[in-house]
């Protein structure tokens, strides 16, 4: 049976764990700072000394292997036995948004001997508490899956109207236009280098993809790896993606080849 705080003989220290799945969340109300503030306030009210805070950035709630979480677990395992640790999270969804991932992390935390607490709910060992916890974890998973589905539907609808909806490819960047939202525009001078390389291959100036690759490597602003080389995959993507011809397509979403709302760098032909 779990001891009450007043019955403990060992000092209790709190470790805060905060997680965001995207950089956009850093500037929203559920960002790392707001999570940490709420957890620190909870620890203060409970009389816990906060020893350290661990921050997980850009990690999905469906992923169990996480750098910050592993660092937290290692920290507890390396601690002295005379300290009792409480892991404080802002909300159950900050731990996981997948039921299986939630169960895996709960087991990993339990193995360290640390307790999990949150200002949003009370964790317990009795059957009713475990049922409620698992139900909430399942609800968090449902919201994640539902959000992903809705996001996909919105992106598909936008692609049907000719808008590219993914991370901008090399040579493009996004620009916000009133009434249209984000739209692709040329990212100079890289766009000019790409256009010259593609037109050079089409005209015979460059006789192979390897020559195009060497040309782009000679361009100082062109993205390169740590060895100063342009990745082969970059070259292949540029020479095969219809986005560079001003078109969009996504067959697995049922979006057939169609003219995009952005200007291409070369003709489709």
Show the helix and strand layout:
Layout: E1 12-20, H1 32-46, E2 49-57, H2 67-77, E3 84-89, H3 92-95, H4 99-112, E4 115-117, H5 127-160, E5 172-177, E6 181-186, H6 190-203, H7 209-217, H8 232-240, E7 247-250, E8 255-259
**How large is the count of helical segments?**
8
- Kindly report the average pLDDT value: 91
Helix/strand/pairing category: alpha/beta
Percent of residues in β-strands? 15-25%
Measured between the Cα atoms of the first and last residue, the distance is: 73 Å
User: Which strand order does the major sheet show?
Assistant: 2-1-3-4
Whole-number radius of gyration? 25 Å
Give the number of DSSP strands: 8
Task: Give a short account of the largest sheet.
Answer: 4 strands, parallel
| Amount of helix | 40-55%
Shape: elongated
Encode the helix/strand succession as letters: EHEHEHHEHEEHHHEE
What does this structure look like?
There is one protein chain. The chain is α/β, with parallel strands linked by helices and 269 residues long. Helices cover 41% and strands 18% of the residues. The protein is built from eight helices and eight strands, in the order βαβαβααβαββαααββ. It has helices spanning 32-46, 67-77, 92-95, 99-112, 127-160, 190-203, 209-217, 232-240, and strands at residues 12-20, 49-57, 84-89, 115-117, 172-177, 181-186, 247-250, 255-259. Strands 2-1-3-4 form a four-stranded parallel sheet, with helices on both faces. Helix 6 packs antiparallel against helix 7. The longest helix is centred in the middle third of the chain and has 34 residues, at 127-160. The protein is elongated.
